Amino acid sequence: MDLAVRAEQLRSERQPFVEATVVRAQPPTSAHSGDRALVLADGTIEGFVGGQCTESSVREASRTVLEQGESMLLRVLPAGSGEFPDTPGATIAVNPCMSGGATEIFLEPRMPPIVVAVFGDSPVAEAVGEFARRVDYSVEQILGTSVPAEASVVIVASHGGDEAGVIRAALDAGSRYVGLVASRTRGAAVLDDVEPTDEERARLRTPVGLDIGARTPAEIGLSIVADIVRVARSGGLARSSGESGRRVEVPRGTGPKPRTAVDPVCGMTVTITESTPHLVLAGRTVWFCCPGCRRRYEKDDVA
């Protein structure tokens, strides 16, 4: 499998994933420095960064990486080992598998860019698009009142036209940030036509943009994109719940979070996928980090 081609495919499909790269490996681990894999949002691993116990640790850590949108250096150590040199800032996972060995794996989130949909062809609309692209956002033009389903941000900068219709379409589509370029008086009149609920009103902004004393179209565009960045960095564009910490946009269509279970033998939290080792006993499914723990559980259960 060509991971570079696969990664580009995931980006084109706007699917979040984690790039995992083995930085260091200590024998007898089966991984080697430079081994790579892609970890999808459902816990699927494509590529190779180690055996099943290591994969379990990588899956669990990747969930945190995707939720927080921050890279992580994961140190996977064999149980009872302290031989691997300490690395400040690393997250440690103890590997209960008997194969031994230690690895350091760098996990880097690859999130779809925030989509900013712009309605209008005014100079302010053009400036919003230019600044949004400069911060690596994806910019789309709204034609009619059809709002792209993936747009977390909608900016109405037409100075007329069916502004209320576009705003209503954006709210109905679930956009988290809907901004109208207008004076306070005219903006209030447009919102009266929209008739937003209290929850929808919390997603509306008019006048839109940070108050930086902007006068020119370029300055107004800058103030709008700066406010979008502020909201995005504070987690205001997040589409799914997550743990505390910095959150980033997760596009609709990502699907539910992967299920997890605790290995009853070693206590490791494992992400449940089709390849996760398991047993069905008396109608109950028991999940394991690796075949070794499953065999040990079977032996103890029989005994």
UniProtKB/TrEMBL annotation:
<dbReference type="InterPro" id="IPR003777">
    <property type="entry name" value="XdhC_CoxI"/>
</dbReference>
<protein>
    <submittedName>
        <fullName>Xanthine dehydrogenase accessory factor</fullName>
    </submittedName>
</protein>
<dbReference type="InterPro" id="IPR052698">
    <property type="entry name" value="MoCofactor_Util/Proc"/>
</dbReference>
<feature type="domain" description="TRASH">
    <location>
        <begin position="263"/>
        <end position="301"/>
    </location>
</feature>
<dbReference type="InterPro" id="IPR011017">
    <property type="entry name" value="TRASH_dom"/>
</dbReference>
<dbReference type="InterPro" id="IPR027051">
    <property type="entry name" value="XdhC_Rossmann_dom"/>
</dbReference>
<feature type="region of interest" description="Disordered">
    <location>
        <begin position="238"/>
        <end position="261"/>
    </location>
</feature>
<dbReference type="Pfam" id="PF02625">
    <property type="entry name" value="XdhC_CoxI"/>
</dbReference>
<dbReference type="Pfam" id="PF13478">
    <property type="entry name" value="XdhC_C"/>
</dbReference>
